[in-house]
Amino acid sequence: MTEKQENILKAALKLFATQGYASTSTRKVAKEAGVSEGLIFRHFKNKEGLLNTIREKSTEAARLMMADVVMSNEPKEVIRKILELPFCMQSSEYEMWRLTYALKWQTDSYDSSFSNPVKLVLKDAFTILGYKDPIAEAELIFMIMDGAAKALLLHEPENKLDILKTLKSKYNF
């Protein structure tokens, strides 16, 4: 990808995350990126093409985050690593994750390609550990992590490591 294409994607991500997808025109993106609007159309076809490229990048980032978790064979390690995921987000990726969460509400699409494998890995871990209802436990952890990620993205607390420590202690880690 060229430097100009990267600049376009960065500008689109910033504007989509801060002003909303529907409120951001390709003209605004071009101005923010310092390129012509025609260049956006040439490389990404339209605004939806920009969004799709950003979504592909965020999906890849999510897969990379999960790779270490999925490779773990120890159930407690799987659960611990999943509990840590939202607390390990890099601040440089906040706009990408903010946009990902915002799109869940701004569009009628929900991509379960990330959530379903997480829930399955959690269910398997809780099953191995002998929990009474591993499906409910997996869903609960996923809901907690989803809420933690949203909260951290909106207003990162100063004591986020203490919060993680408390959360881990609830599952005896």
Task: For this entry, give a set of tags.
173 residues, mainly alpha, Arc Repressor Mutant, subunit A
Tell me the Rg in angstroms.
18 Å
Q: State the separation between the terminal residues, measured CA to CA.
A: 42 Å
Q: What's the β-strand tally? A: 0
> Percent range for helical residues?
over 70%
Describe this protein's structure.
The mean pLDDT is 89. The N and C termini lie far apart (42 Å). Helix 1 packs across helix 4, helix 1 packs across helix 6 and helix 7 (115-128) crosses helix 8. The protein folds into two domains: 1-45, Homeodomain-like (Arc Repressor Mutant, subunit A, Orthogonal Bundle), CATH 1.10.10.60; 56-170. It is mostly helical and 173 residues long. The longest helix has 24 residues, at 47-70. Helices cover 73% and strands 0% of the residues. It contains nine helices and no strands.
Helix/strand layout:
Layout: H1 3-19, H2 26-33, H3 37-44, H4 47-70, H5 75-84, H6 94-106, H7 115-128, H8 134-154, H9 160-170
Helix pairs in contact: 1-2, 1-4, 1-6, 4-5, 5-7, 7-8
Concise summary:
The protein is mainly α and 173 residues long. Helices cover 73% and strands 0% of the residues.
